[in-house]
Amino acid sequence: MPPRVMRLALPFLGVIAVLGVIAAFAWRSPQREPDRRPGVAACPGAYPQGPRPKATRDGDLVARGASVALLCRYPFPNNALGGSTPLAAEDVPRLVERLNGLADARAVESSACLLAGREEYQVALGYPDGTKTLVTVHANCGVVSSTGAVRLLRSLDQIVGLWPAA
To answer: Which of 62, 64, 91, 116 is the most buried (most CB within 10 A)?
Structure first.
């Protein structure tokens, strides 16, 4: 390439490279800390209905440091709260690690959910600072979600199995 053409091409290539980097970051979900809201961990009265959730953020599924975990059960067919079971305090950190260790669900191509009528679950987490977060276990869809993060659920036992009575 002649030197003059090269001098003209280099700035152009630099602009293309910068635009490429900006585009790469624009396509990624923002990575931020999981949201927590003020209040005590409690089970909602009904299981949320709707399609499989879409991921809107990267990062941990839930914040570390939870001190309380309740397993909320929603029997089929009405999906109203059927009861809740607390997790032993010594097992809460292990639950948080399992939740945060689940694989990113965006790599899965299918977004379909089974039409199987089965009990659904949510996990209410409470933190010592008086905040809470809710994890929805979409067993029929094979995913777990919380505040915009969605993870792959290979087996319901990964989460629910920590509760001996579940």
So the answer is: 62
Give yes or no for a contact between 131 and 137, defined as CB atoms under 8 angstroms apart. Answer: no
What tens digit of pLDDT does each residue of 129-154 get? 999 999 999 888 889 999 999 999 98
Is residue 133 in some structural domain?
A: yes
* Residue 77 preceded by cis peptide, ω within 30: yes
The total domain count for the chain is 2
Half-sphere exposure of residue 7, counting CA atoms within 13 Å on the CB side? 3
Q: Which residues pair with 137 in a beta bridge?
A: 121, 144
Show the domain range for 97.
37-160
Rounded Cα–Cα distance for residues 139 and 38 (Å): 27
